[in-house]
Amino acid sequence: MAGDTLVAMALGSTLFFSVPSAEARDNVALYLLITLAPFGLIGPFLGGFFARFPGAYRGGLVVSSALRAVAAVALAIWLNTILLFPVAFILLVLSRFHGISRSSVVPIVLDDPSELVSGNAQLARIGVVGSAVVVPFGLLGVGFGHPSFTLILALLVYVWSALSAVGLPPLRVERDRSREARTARKRASAPRDVRLARFATAGVRFLNGFLLLLVAFEFRDENAPIADFSALLAAAGLGYLIAAFVTPILNRRLSEEPMVVTGLAIEAGAAFVAAQVFGLPAAAFLAAAAGFAWGTAKFGFDGLLQATVPEEGRGRAFTNAETFFQIAWVVGALIPVLPVIPVSLGLTIAGLLALAIQVVYISAVLVPVARHRRSRGGTEAAGEAQKPEKNVLDLM
């Protein structure tokens, strides 16, 4: 996480701050398109890799960190050339590879399914702290006009990450090689509740991409100082950190689905407020709400997937989900980049869209329960009505 933060700072200083606003829009649009185009191919590749080697999560952590160290050096060399874009894409893919490996290993080392959300939140807290520690050093490099220094620091962090991953114990996942078992796992790799939660979580990711670029270019067009952008990033990180502390508490009373809805509701409310009184304080509040919404939705989704998908199917399921989330983020970010959308209009649209996603998601969750109840009759149905399912009770 610390290394990815340093890379993002170096790229931001090159693509966004060091050029005029119009050129910055073109640079960002090109970067987003390059990262989006091949993702449809990479997702199935990583999914197939984890399906074939279900115990390779430790190797994934080692390889993704080591290769990012190499890519950071290449990016430092080619930072001001067109080769920046393919190297940045490689870094993005390796970051996703690392995230999928990390998420897949959590349910292997935690025996109690009730600890999954707390485990994910703890990893997120560590990641936020790691990012916060390196930000001042990254700002030194960017502030003095030497983003390559920031990338060299990222190199050292990635090497440290790879060495730490080497020290992990080997992970062994038992495989049932029968055709029937493989077919059953493939069908069960993404149950309906996981697919619905993935849709809603992707909605949060889409909105985050849209809001980030909408607000960033509003500030960029007004020639806001870098300190304002730093405040927005700090607010987003703070919101995500708060989610890492609050989500385990919510999980004691709520199931994962209502946690996803909570994230959408908070993001909708913050967008409506910021649309009315837009400025640095409102934008910082919006960034914090977006960070909190993403953390709450993502921790809930990860816990749901880890608890319901078999071990051999988790790598593929996480790969598909991460690919879906990345595409959602890029599509959302592309919308406000080239056409100049008034910030108040954009924020209002984002709030309405968040509400619409909530309605669709809640309706989809409730429909099978309603059908199940209608299919029962007599005393049994009356008895079951007194024991509502956990998801419905939580949503109400």
Structure description:
The chain is mainly α. The protein has a single domain (2-171, 185-369, 387-391), classed as MFS general substrate transporter like domains (Growth Hormone, Chain: A), CATH 1.20.1250. 83% of the residues lie in helices and 0% in strands. The protein has 16 helices and no strands. It has helices at residues 2-17, 21-36, 39-52, 57-77, 84-109, 116-143, 147-166, 179-188, 192-221, 226-251, 256-276, 280-308, 311-334, 343-374, 378-385, 390-395.
Q: Distance N terminus to C terminus? A: 36 Å
Secondary-structure arrangement, i.e. CATH architecture: Up-down Bundle
- In CATH terms, the superfamily is MFS general substrate transporter like domains
In DSSP terms (H or I, runs of 4 or more residues), the helix count works out at 16
Counted up, domains total 1
Strand percent estimate: under 5%
Q: What is the helical fraction, as a range of percent?
A: over 70%
Shape: globular
> For the CA atoms, what is the radius of gyration?
22 Å
Tell me about the biggest sheet? none
Structural class: mainly alpha
Q: Uncertain regions: pLDDT < 50 for 5+ in a row?
A: 184-188, 378-382, 384-396
CATH class: Mainly Alpha
Mean pLDDT: 79
Using DSSP, what is the number of strands? 0
CATH-derived topology: Growth Hormone, Chain: A
SSE order = HHHHHHHHHHHHHHHH
